[in-house]
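Bug #77: duplicate submission created two jobs. Keeping one. Sequence:
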Amino acid sequence: MSKALYYKGTYEDVRGYLYKPKKSKYWHTKYHYFDANGKKIPGAEHGESTKMTIKSDAIRFMMERVDSLKQKTIRLTPAMPFVDFIRYWLEKEIIKDVEATTYSGYVLNVNNHIIPYFKGFDYRIKDLSPKKFKISWMKNLCADA
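Kept job's structure:
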C-alpha cells in the first residue's frame, strides 16, 4: 500500500472495496486508481480503517469517500483547451516534483506569459505541435515589429 493518503497522479476512475482483517474489529477500505483505458495504475492505491464495526456503515463511508475522490478527477482529453491543461499541470502535477522557489517561477511564467499568449488562440491539446508553436511565435514576432 502507498504511504500517501491519496494518489496524487492523473487518473480517470477510482474504485474501492471493503475487507475486515482477522485481528481487527473494524472494517477497512482499499482504493484503486485506473487510467483512461480502464487499467489499474500500478502502485496507485491506498487504504484506511473506517473505524466502524457495522458493515452497512462502512459501505456508506467507503461510497462517500469514492464519490469524493471521483469529484477530484479531471478528464484529460485531446479536446481539452491547452490553457486548461497548463493550469492543471501547474496546480496538480508539477507542484509535487519541484522546489517551492522553482514552482513560484513556474507560476509567474505560466500566469504572466504562457496563458495570456495562448488564450487568444483557442488551441486544444490535439491541435498542438512544434510547428504550430513556431508559426504562432513567428506571427507574434512579426506583429510586434
